[in-house]
Amino acid sequence: MHRAILSLLMIVQCWCDVQVSIDRIKGEYSISVGNNIWLRSSSTALYVDDRWYSSNDSSLLLIDTLVFQGDDPDFGNWNETQLIYKLNHGGIVTNVSAHIRQWNSISSITFRLNIGTKDLTNNINLNMDQVRTVFPSFKIEQIDTNDYRGYFTFEGVMMGYDEMHAGIWKSSNTVIKSGMEAGPVVLFNITQHGQNDVIILSPFAQFMATSLSQQDNILQYGVMGSIKTIPANYNHTMILFYSSNGINDALRQYGNIMQRAYNRDKQYR
Prior knowledge:
By secondary structure, the protein is mainly beta. It has one domain: Distorted Sandwich (Beta-galactosidase, Chain A, domain 5), CATH 2.70.98.10. 6% of the residues lie in helices and 50% in strands.
């Protein structure tokens, strides 16, 4: 159940201190914690017919923006902005929709991409450490001299301990070493010693086909580049989870949400 709302600049805030701001004209979005911007978006893009279509050069053209509210039986009320893009490849035209949903009862924002009503096929694949659909994407950057965000990430085979590493959230750092083996990324405020504000970025669906990747200083989420064909109406979703209670509690809460989403319990832990 949902209803449409009209707005040029959408700022949605839940009971927590995280909020998303969306420019309905440019399709840009940012994530703020308190009064500070933590993440700024980069482009939305698709690799189709052996070439890139991107919002940067309008080859993936933003043609409309819609805003909805609704209710989910598991997670309650939500507010959602849909960015509608026109993809014209080889004379085939389809609309691609990027959904940014903020939940009111849980401190999370989900990002979902629907590729539209046509298959997306390549003859020349990208490598498996890249992604061929890009949404969302965020700049890895120090925004100003008072920006003290750090990160750590799980990476490697199976449990992700082989390449687990940490550093400063800045453009010169390699946050994701291998898209194929990338795990959740945890952002935190270094001045708080990881005891307060924390953001976790993670796939929320299609775990075997999607991953996080890094190109230059851009963190990207999407379908792995080695996949030749993406079927019509395919969806993938990433979750951004926020906690003000530090890294340990954030990871526990994030795990609880994943269990709720997929009807799992702790019986075999």
